[in-house]
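Before the break, one more example. Copy the sequence into your notebook; we will annotate it together after we see the structure.
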Amino acid sequence: MMEIVCLDLEGVLVPEIWIAFAGASGISELTRTTRDEPDYDKLMRWRLGILKEHGLGLKEIQKTIEGIDPLPGAKEFLDELRSITQVMILSDTFTQFASPLMKKLGWPTILCNTLVVAESGEITDFKMRIKDSKLTTVKALQSIGYDTIAAGDSYNDLAMIQAGKAGFLFRSTEKIKADHPELQAFEEYDELLAAIKGAL
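Here is what the structure looks like once it is written out:
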């Protein structure tokens, strides 16, 4: 059986983009993430409403993203992992946000969503690649003969973590860890790497 490792992006390999933008824009409400709100659709619609209210668009967010670096040790972890197995990043972020970060991570494969942007630069909507994209993707990989091993930090990662051959929480919240004592939880990349190697 072939294995493929599926990793979440934000909170696992790079800082949370919306938290960084909340800091840069001074709009503290934008610190809400999927760690706080399990319903991603609801969270995104709420975010777009706040951006509209403040007259902010894609350009301002991309400017913040340009200044974001991967979490310390993330690229080394990813390089090591990619040298031993196939790795795919499954994220609910958007291609317009992810590209500068993928460059800094050495262009790993990422499957994510896309934003609908007006000529003015206003983000008017977002298009999800598919419903429950992380779980759906993991099931699709399994259907073509891959065993999946997954790691993530948020509510929207739980289904893909639970659906595979092995799954781990990484730098998650105390609440998610307490709600899912059956899942091994790690804080450091070397621990996560060792656990993934052990599951391969």
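Strands lie at 2-7, 86-94, 109-117, 123-127, 146-152, 166-170, 184-186. The CA atoms of residues 94 and 104 lie 16 Å apart. Try to locate both features in your own notes.
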